[in-house]
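Write out structure tokens for Uridylate kinase.
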Amino acid sequence: MIPTKEALPTLEDACVIQVGGTLADWVGTADWIALAARLGSVRPTIIVPTGGPFVDTVREAEDMWRLQPAVVRRMTLLAMDSFALLLHGIHPEIGIAAGPAEMKANAAAGQASVWLPSSLAETRRELVEDWDAASDSLAAWLAVEIGAERLILVKAGTCPCHSVEALGADTAAMVRDGVLSPGFPVWRRRFGGAVWCVERERVEDVAAALEQGGGFGCPLAATPLMGVAAPDR
């Protein structure tokens, strides 16, 4: 039985985990999905997918046919949905969710959720039409939208932890280095929770830190790029 609306949990203590596209063909991805499943049994947990290998087909079609940006955005969101379904297939105990209502229902059942971003094309069309967003920006936007407690960005490359100051990594520099997308810093500034950038091999360290209620990896400070505007919520 689906809980009533009044019985559904809030998402204020949620953990949002962005799984990078380069993890699609990495066997260790299953460990991250298993971690999300464990977290989902004790707190709302939402996985944000990238386009993975599916978005490569979109890029090829864009180059070949010179598609309009609005079409490419919709196709990219559908590619993210495909990767989301792949993650759900790896660990079927994780539920799929088009929006906060489904995320809350899954949380009430002790399940983590994997988000289907294409739902934005119907619910937030102005956002899709005016914003070229990568998955890390979408993850930050979702964290703001649901009032999550923390956001974890899982990267295949090396996060600059060796140069992190006490207040956190320089998000602007990480954008210049290609670690983060250009739109991410603006949404980071809007998000009041903690943000970590972690290397994909450190799943057990992250699991231990979460169990102890601590942090891990590169804490990303709210330092947006100058002159970059985010769309209205």
